[in-house]
Amino acid sequence: MTPSLRTVSFGDADAGVWGAVAEGELRFLALGAGGSTRAELESLTLEHSDEEGDWQLRGDGLELTIEPELALAGGPVEFDQRCRVRGGFTLDGHEQAVDCRGIRSSRDGRTDLRRCEAIRSVSGWFGAEDGVALLALRPRAPQGHDEDSVSATLFEHGGPVPVTEPRLSTTYAADGRPLRVSLELWLGEEPDDYPRRAAAEALGTPASCARSGVQAQAELLRWHSRGMEGSGVYLLASLP
Q: How far is the CA of 213 from the CAs of 4, 192, 197, 240, in angstroms?
């Protein structure tokens, strides 16, 4: 089955270098470095010979290789996975080298974005082995936030852990830009289970653009969880 959505998020909160890519029914590119950003709603393609192998992204002033780091969380078409992104891009006439950790995700054709009015892809990575990937899809004419379809994967000690009940809370600025994020991830239904929690704040300038009724933006995040700090990206898109 052909994926309806692939996403890649990468970055380093300390260095201020980051990026986000969406390919499929939503095509979006966001890049940031040194306080400058670039955003495009273009027909970019993540090239690959094997869905589980390296992905390549090439464009104007852009060449990135997305390499898998840890085991898949899911099947060969629907998964979340820690990755490493290497290569470079040009921003405001300056060449920026990239060697960052990140997360890549794929959703198959059962995820019909035409029935959605908003997409939120939230990701974070801590060191070489831990991280989180969350996708929230808001259906058209929802009755409330509880109508969102939310799925998430937690990465702990190098392995993926399914999340039975993911909860996402976002604080927005007056212009709709995400400012702060908190996650509560429940892994089971036993009475003595406890959720994994993480919180993040947005850093720097968001990358945003709009075309043909689609509005998309992405921001670099700094995450905090269980005494660890990490990097991540918040991608938000509104669909016509």
A: 19, 46, 35, 5
